[in-house]
Amino acid sequence: MSALSPRDPREDPREDRYPSRVGGEARVLPRRDPVVYGACPALLTDKQWAFYQRDGYLFLPDFLAPQEVRVLARATEELRARLGEHDAPEIVREPSSRAVRSVFAAHRLSAELDALTRNPQLLAIVEAVLGSRTYVHQSRVNYKPGFEGKEFYWHSDFETWHVEDGMPSMRALSCSVSLTENNAFNGAVMVVPGSHKHYLTCPGLTPEGHYQQSLVRQEYGVPTHAQLTTLIDRYGIASPLGGPGSLLLFDCNLMHGSNSNISPYPRNNVFVVFNSVQNRLQAPYCGLPARPEHIASREHTEVRTPMGG
Ligand code: 6CS
Ligand code: FE
Q1: Pocket of ligand 1, candidates 165, 167, 214, 291: which has the most ligand atoms within 8 Å of its Cβ, to mutate?
Q2: What's the pTM?
Q3: How far is the CA of 143 from the centre of ligand 1 (A)?
Q4: Per-residue pLDDT of the chain (309 residues; tens, 9 = 90+)
Q5: Ligand 1: which atom is nearest the Cα of residue 142?
Q6: Closest Cα partner for 298 from 175, 168, 164, 136?
Q7: Cβ(155) to ligand 1 under 6 A?
Q8: Contact, 59 vs 248, CB < 8 A?
Q9: Under DSSP, is residue 83 helix (H, G, I), strand (E, B) or coil?
């Protein structure tokens, strides 16, 4: 048994290209994977494609039409009501109230949300970025209700998906569709542009069953103040703001977070995480049991095909 823990991930025979939470100090390592794996899709300009590679995100206002947003908004409200009633496992509640914070595996619980994961324009962009067919690694609705929606502290999703889900490489991206206003007052997503090119290793080890805490308030797998200060001194912070129907695409390793919502109005976003079929999950690098299927897809990995295609 190692000095650190009975499950010291450093006893894992695999080469870990992105070691984090292995008991060492917090470091800033270089990204070891491409940012884009394919060619610029017809839907994007060369300028947008270059922006995504340099800054790690792309904001497309009015990506969905008002009617499409209304359909999704109705579906997310129905999900919250149906699952909230009997505390389904896919429900995550706010830390200081019974308000619903997130619903996971939303695309498997709602036909309308499944249709969003097969939106032809979205898939064309995602397949160009990932250079392959894709499947849904994770989907969720973050409701961030007025007054009660608490923050999501700074983090890289990939750090969690690598350490706790065994995602091998940085070949996944998140699509966040706003169903409400995302403004300076209701906890819009903030990103550190360019941070996707650096891998911030996090101190500490991963607690057993960490997701039951981290999805409410993440305390492991978060960078130190020194690491964040170095990154933000260099790149600054951006917060793409827009109305319902806007789309924020961001690289799996982009540093992001959002403030608590103390406005009266919700900030309701649907997140779909697409992973390349060449990047399927392996055993978690932290050495713990795999997280549940509704948080990280291992069985439900059907290749995404475009609607009507
Ligand atoms: O652990 C995860 O997979 C989730 N955690 C955060 C804070 N963002 C990504 C994802 O929803
Ligand atoms: Fe995240």
Answers
A1: 214
A2: 0.95
A3: 14
A4: 344 444 566 677 788 999 999 887 899 999 999 999 999 999 999 999 999 999 999 999 999 999 999 999 999 999 999 998 888 999 999 988 889 999 999 999 999 999 999 999 999 999 999 999 999 999 999 999 999 999 999 999 999 999 999 999 999 999 999 999 999 999 999 999 999 999 999 998 999 999 999 998 888 889 999 999 999 999 999 999 999 999 999 999 999 999 999 999 999 999 999 999 999 999 999 999 999 999 999 999 999 999 986
A5: 11
A6: 136
A7: yes
A8: yes
A9: helix
